[in-house]
Write a structure and sequence with these properties.
With 488 residues, the chain is mostly helical. It has one domain. Helix content is 60%, strand content 5%. The radius of gyration is 22 Å and the shape is globular.
Amino acid sequence: MVTERAERVAPRSVPVVEGRSFLDRFFRLREHGTTVRTELMAGLTTFMVMAYIIAVNPSILNLGGKGLPVRDVATVTCLVAGIMTIAMGLYTNRALALAPGLGINAIVSFTLVGAMGLSFPAAMGVVVSEGIIITLLVLLGIRQWVLDAVPLALKKGISVGIGFFILFIGLKNAGFITFSTGVPGKDTGTVGGLLGLAPLTGWPIFVAVAGLVVTLVLMARNVRGAILWGILLGTVIAFIVPGHVTSFPSKPLAGPDFSLIGQFSFSYIGKLGILTSLLVVLSLMLADFFDTMGTIVGVGSQAGYLDAEGNFPEAEKPLLVGSVAAALGGAMSASSATTYIESAAGVSVGGRTGLVAVVTGLLFLLALPFVNLVSAVPDAATAPALIVVGFLMVSVLSEQESVDASGRAYRSRGINFGDLEEGLPVVLTMLTMPFTFSITNGIGVGFVSWVLIKVARGKAREVHPALYAVAGAFLIYFLRWAVFGAQF
């Protein structure tokens, strides 16, 4: 395997934080060059950017009124996000937040329940199964083994791909882009058409533009918390302008409902059969496995968690928390919980330690009595944050000076796009993520193309055995429709 060299430079001094409070000592704030105030601000920012899941997850699992009750799902969404994000902060001391993941919840609702006829408890049983399997893989060291085997170039490509993915979501939520047939007057409004610039009219776009301008101006002036201030101002403007951009829910203090906890079963095996059950579990497992891997690499590159070779020290800790979160999410009928790419929002305002995650998790728990009220923050207000965070994550492509997990500075080069075996897999990884709306698809295409090109050039021995295993698994995943007749 070809590895990159990183030219070591003189260590940079870490800012000294006065005082040694309990929080300072427990989370090692001084060693990470941060303060309690900065971590609190970062935790609040991460929560604000992620809070949309409190409204989005119930809307997906509700299946247009035919699925799970909205308030019940909102409750378990906050509960799972709160518990597992706090666990992440305390166990790993990393600024990583978790919540039920978009993508798998859609598979659960529209495919397992809608298309394949499973009950919601049986569908959640599939999630619990894949979560247990991934947890075992972590405990056996297999997940860490795979993560360490990924070449640095692909890790950078994953980080940049996630950045483009976040930026794409931000542009979409802001209303800047749309899909059309390409024929005037016949816009589809769906992903079945061509991607294009939307007519820049309407109050939601005004809210997004105002929030983006404020965020960029504050960032240009080096104002701490610029992203958070942009979200807050955008939300205020959304309430002021006409056009029903957002509104208070009819019952903002309805309170939580915990009746969905424990509502899962493994009856899907009898319903689907052994082969289909294995394929379904494998598909969800790959999504969870590599979503988390991609997220900790992407966020880690921004937070300085990675070393000069792109490795994440003690990665088994966040991987274990993420695996347990997948199983717990299914057990609580919230769908699989995963590490969120929006964690980069808190990192971008200076967050560096597990205190960020603890604050974010506590806010999710505090939101339980107000599950309907928190959802009043509209997509248009959080879209500017996603756009800016996406841009910041793309910066790993350039040659730059970075700080590794031990606090040492090093200079790393960018991607050599003139080299086919390095450049093409990275490009495919970066573009597949936003274009297919899936982190997993991007990582899979990158792995398969990396192995294929290496073998074609007679460099099969340079490929780590783990990459062969993963590429093979992804081939099964990508060919599941043609070979097995899968409907998901």
